[in-house]
Input
Amino acid sequence: MYTINLIKKTAKIVLLLLCTLNSITVFSEDEISIKKIDAPFLGTSAGDDWPVFNGTYGEQHFSALEEINTTNVEKLGLAWHMDLDAGNTVTGPLEVDNTIYISKGYSVVHAIDAVSGKLLWKYDPDVAKHADIRLRQGWGSRGLAWWNNKIYVGTLDGRLIALEAKTGDVVWTVNTLEEIENGSYFISGAPRVFDGKVIIGNGGTEHASTRGFVTTYDAESGKQLWRFYVVPGNPKDGFENKAMEMAAETWHGEWWKVGGGGNTWNAFTYDKEFGQILIGTGNGSPWNIKVRSQGKGDNLFLCSIVALDAETGEYRWHYQVNPGETWDYNASMDMQLGEAEIDGKQRKIVVTAPKNGFFYVLDRTNGKLISAEKITKANWASHIDLETGRPVENPEARYPKGTFTLYPSPAGAHSWLPMSFDNQKNRAFIPVIELGARYDDRMVDLKNWKHLPGNAVDTAVILELEYDKDRKLTDPMSKLLAWDIVKQKEIWSVPGPGSWNGGVLATRGNIVFQGQITGEFKAYDADTGKLLWSFDAGDPVLAPPITYLADGKQYVTVLTGLGTSISFYGGSLGALPNYRTMKRRVLTFSLGGNAELPPRSKEQARVAFDDPEYELPDTKTLEMGQLMFMSRCMACHGDGALAVGQAPDLRTSGIVPLKPTFNAFVRNGVKARGMPSFEELPDEQLHLIREFIRWKAATLRENE
Ligand code: HEC
Output
């Protein structure tokens, strides 16, 4: 009774009464408003709105809506579309109160009316001006967060910005990297908000000596609350907490000099029931443990799910999926909460499919492993020992002789594009990548290795994507997999085109939505995998779809276009999207929607530039050129100069044959249009890069 009366009083009076009446339960105004704002985030499926990257606190990326279902999905049609300009569009939208929010390219936030498709406001944090050499990494923004009429977005240069949801006006900005000297950390992931706090991590593992950490801020004021480091620093400087002291026992040599890594670039899950926040941690910096930690030790807390007290950031428990990791098998993929009866016992669980090809079910009260099985070819380990919770590794996997071909590749069997978890039926729908890679450190100076300067990609091991010998490059190297999380067994799967396909959304309407690199947006029957509906979007559909009610009607929204990561792994495609002609769009569907897209642009054959003076250079030049290209240009212009749509195909560029023009162009860049500047590259290095591109163009010309 007191509680009800107190709701209306000011915080001050509440405090006063608390002092005198300390025997009764009262809530402060803050707590009351958090309870109200909390409501749409709770439960194991998203409701009318989609207020957070994966729909709920539990991150299931699953919707309870069923207006669109297996009986009527064939009537699903385009309600409206919006054209966007160039830049990363593989980003997860949000929807709150009939407004869609997206963060495209370099974190340019758009607010769009969900019913009409009209742009309401746009906010551009001008990242090209702030991000400096980080622009070379090629990442865009993966998403944003909503809380209490505010939108939160992170930027490549490390800012976390709160905007007024109605207007896009800036409420506050903090620099999450303020004390970090090294200019390689960046934010690409979506922030999460819980209990009035925003949490954000960072990336950068491949580009410099990084030491990963996560920070929480007060959602209203931007004041820093707590920070947790993922790996220990130099013991001489003292440890931040007991967890770091414990972690340091598992490292060897002078790891802090190379950073250690563990950057938490994507996944967070708030487990309200137990007052904890789970963080999915990244891989080692550099990848190669021979360089990082004298080839030994578990290297905590790399590649782990770490549970922290949500209030204080204090360590509670962890589960490490890859002790002593050396392959970029990070555990930064969605961690989804639920409850299930397993072996006759009701368990509180968290499920995750990290890069390493296994599907894990853990007890989220203590981090103990319940089960783990392979969802695809994974030759680095035979199985996970359920007693110890540790993998039983293939002794060849750590490339002791310098090279070994491993499945999955560092793209992961599952990457950051979310799976969907239906906790009622205990099944997950996973976008699986089926690539392998040859790791090779025979050319690496393991004793004196240092990160290449200038934000070049450098992992202390050389990588080459590998495909099964009996497979053609155009064969499917991916699948959409429906997985029984209790039996740890496949229910059904359908092969996908290429290796990299879209994030997955499943709904109580018993439908699984997924987009494909080839431009189809598809709906499957969740029980059988039967294809029920397909829409030709004309351009790649990779972003995670969302669904919500606006004015009482169910809509599905997804973006087309490319971005983040695809250039590294896009080589397994038949038809390649063209950077200049590809359409980046927001598409919104509803039952009976009858809008149409302009006709698909015709695929143009790629024609190599004219290069009458070209002569085949010596092997050494080509090898060095390839190394330079892969560490500096691949992120956008593609593996082996095979551009897949994130930047122009350099084999067809009229600039490359003209040496002085090429040198000037690469040194100056066109930052505002996404081409960074490489002012420090000397003539000899530009020569090597250019020779490599010319050689690739000559190869293309021969095949024309
Ligand atoms: C972060 C992504 C990124 C990286 C890294 C990058 N580029 Fe680019 N590059 C672009 C984009 C985007 C464009 C297109 C800009 C525009 O719209 O004109 C471009 C354009 C170019 C062009 C002009 C192509 C044409 O004909 O229009 C050349 C040449 C080029 N880049 C060379 C390089 C080289 C060499 C490297 C490595 C040293 C490199 N780029 C690294 C994104 C990148």
The longest strand covers residues 76-84.
